[in-house]
Amino acid sequence: MSDLSGRNNVSLDPKGRIAIPARFRMAFPEEQQNDIVLTRGFDPCITGYYSDSWKEFQKIFYDNDLSQEEMDLIEREFIGRKLETTFDKQGRVTLPPHLIKYANLEGLGEVTVIGIRNRIEIWNPEVYDEIRAEKEQVIQSLRQKLKMS
């Protein structure tokens, strides 16, 4: 298994199906390459986890000192919206309508899929580019903070 990384634009068909690039699926642990857990992201995107990374994600919430209100919100928004699904023979998954709406993917023919260490994110390409542009100043300040030339 290698870390998930990179960016691809992929087709989103009218049935809500997308083909997750093979290089991302192959980066999942071998015994977890057929399944994916989809839920909302913190940003307006859909986040996909393999089984072990989903468990790590959930553990973060339980390992932190959150109020009951915060835990209720986390459980409703992330755990309550999750979908455990399997890739079809073409490496596709069907995105659920509630997550398509959340990530502003309605009516799109193409979406952006990004691999980030232990997860993927599925974005509306315009929204992703807007957020990237908004965060450019943060990236430049990180460059200075990390003392990179």
Q: Which strands sit side by side, in order, in the main sheet?
A: 1-7-8-4-3-5
- For the record, give the distance between the C-alpha atoms at the N and C termini, rounded to a whole number: 32 Å
Mind telling me the CATH superfamily name?
Transcriptional regulator MraZ domain
Low-confidence stretches: none
Number of strands: 8
Instruction: Label the structural class.
Output: alpha+beta
Beta-strand residue fraction: 25-35%
Write the CATH fold name: Chemotaxis protein chec
The best one-word shape is globular
As for the number of domains, it is: 1
> How helix-rich are the residues, as a percent range?
25-40%
- Rg (C-alpha, Å): 16 Å
CATH architecture: 3-Layer(aba) Sandwich
The CATH class label is Alpha Beta
Number of helices: 6
SSE series:
EEHEEHHEEHEEHH
pLDDT averaged residue by residue: 91
Largest sheet: 6 strands, antiparallel
